[in-house]
Prior knowledge:
The chain is of the alpha+beta class. The chain is built from three helices and four strands; from the N terminus they run βαββααβ. The protein has helices at residues 20-35, 64-72, 74-86; strands spanning 7-15, 40-47, 54-61, 89-98. Helix 1 (20-35) runs antiparallel to helix 3 (74-86).
Amino acid sequence: MSKKAVLVVHTTYTIHPEDKQIFTNAVLSHISATRKTEGNVYYHFSWDMVDPNTCVLAEGWVNQKAIDDHLKSEMFQAALKAVIEHVRILERHGTLYTVSGETDIIPETTN
C-alpha cells in the first residue's frame, strides 16, 4: 500500500529572471533529499509554462508532524538560507490543504 497525502502544500514563487539558476541550484539537492524524508509522499518543483519566472512547489505529507520536522531540518534550513541570501523572490503565495478524499482521475489504458 502506498502512502497517501493527508496534507498538501501548494506554493508559488516568482523569481527575478537573473536569479532562476541560483534558485534552482539552491533547492536541487534539497528536493532529492526531501523526497526520501519520512512522511513525505511527494515533493515537486516545476517552472510554470506560461510565466517562466514562476516556480510551483507541490508537496504531499502524511501528517503535520512530518511537515514540522521537515521545516526544522538542517537540509531545509540550509536551502532556505541560500535562497534568502542569494535569490530575489518578487512574489510568493502558499496554501496548506487538508485532503478529505482521493480519486484517480486518469483512466487506465489497454494496448
